[in-house]
Amino acid sequence: MAGNESVENYLETILILSKHKPVVRSVDIAEELGYKKSSVSVAMKNLREKNHITVTKEGFIYLTDTGREIAEMIYERHELLSHWLIKLGVNETVATEDACRIEHVISKESFEAIKKYINQAPAASSPGGSP
To answer: CATH classification of 2-65, choosing from 3.40.30.10, 3.90.830.10, 3.40.1690.10, 1.10.10.10?
Structure first.
């Protein structure tokens, strides 16, 4: 599981960085996660071998279709779970940390049930009417 969680965290980080930067490089990932550049370099090699990313000769990192699919799934889980926990009264820092742990271990079935429940919740019980 730790290997999968690591892959998912890297892919999610690449996705998030790509939303804010014109290009993503290993150094950006290292800075974002607080990891050594050498550790990120090894991880990027593994992600390339698994066909989750491509890296240009300039060192720009792009998600492949499969990499993007995984990253978007994890990102959706993270966003929904952290917002939901905050609405339940959990401190934002704790909610974000817990969502980060939960997003990797929750089954697809359980996540979809939570998502359905949140989306069906009456607007009066959730400020703004959305999760």
So the answer is: 1.10.10.10
| Separation in Å, CA 100 to CA 6, 11, 15, 55, 123 | 11, 13, 15, 26, 26
CATH architecture, domain defined by 69-125: Orthogonal Bundle (1.10)
pLDDT tens sequence for the chain (131 residues): 346 889 999 999 999 999 999 999 999 999 999 999 999 999 999 999 999 999 999 999 999 999 999 999 999 999 999 999 999 999 999 999 999 999 999 999 999 999 999 988 765 444 444 44
Whether 57 and 43 have beta carbons less than 8 Å apart is answered as no
Q: How far apart are CA 114 and CA 36, in angstroms?
A: 36
